[in-house]
Amino acid sequence: MAPTSSVSGILFATIAAVFLLAAAPAGAKDFCIDRASTAAVNPDFILRKFKLPKAGKCKPIVGVVNIPGASVVTGAACGSPDGASVSFALSVGFMPGPLGASIPSTGSTLPVNVLLATDDLTGLAFSYDGDTPSGGTAIGAKCKNLLLP
User: Fold this and answer.
1) Which string of DSSP letters, residue by residue, matches 12-28?
2) Burial zone of 58 (CB within 10 Å; 0-12 exposed, 13-18 middle, 19+ buried)
3) Angle at Cα 50 formed by Cα 47 and Cα 54, nearest 5°?
4) I need a surface site. Which of 39, 59, 70, 116 has the fewest CB within 10 A?
5) How far is 55 from 48, CA to CA, in rounded Å?
6) Run of H or E including 129
7) DSSP-assigned letters across all residues of 30-77
8) How many CA atoms lie within 13 A of 136 on its CB side?
9) Neighbours of 71 (CB within 10 A)
10) Helix (H) or strand (E) holding 6
């Protein structure tokens, strides 16, 4: 039979571990934004370890894009002062290459703006080709079943 002090020590250590685990912050998950105008298998924008900003706050964005192949996206997202929406200012950086091509692409960038309502994460996504805007509906969600790395 174990002495009382060792049993109480084990009980104390177990309770302390439970409280420490409960107090640890939950890790941010990847956040996906998909535009209705694209028919890709994956979402268009995969924001890595991203959590929506609170009202009146902004957060940086780093992720990958599937337009038409894997590239990078950077930018920022800001919550509206009333918390009703989140605005995304994204810059898509298309990767140069391939090296084996007779004339490899030098890469390019594309600005994209997204506005989502915080209650249902639906809204609009649009970009500009010169001075001409194009876009349509968009939806955001925690990413699931991604095929991209």
Assistant:
1) HHHHHHHHHHHHSPPPP
2) middle
3) 130
4) 39
5) 21
6) strand 122-129
7) PEEEEETT---SS-SEEETT--PPPBT-EEEEEEEEESSSEEEEEEEE
8) 5
9) 19
10) helix 4-23
Per this entry, what is the length of the chain? 149
pLDDT of 89-135, one tens digit each?
999 887 777 777 666 666 778 889 999 999 999 999 998 777 777 88
Q: Could you tell me which of 92, 90, 80 has the C-alpha nearest to residue 114?
A: 90
Which residue type is seen at 15? I
CA-to-CA distance for 38 and 20, rounded, in angstroms? Answer: 44
Closest CA to 141 of 33, 5, 44, 64: 33
pLDDT digits (tens, 9 = 90+) for 7-34: 443 333 333 333 333 333 445 689 999 8
Q: Whole-model pTM?
A: 0.71
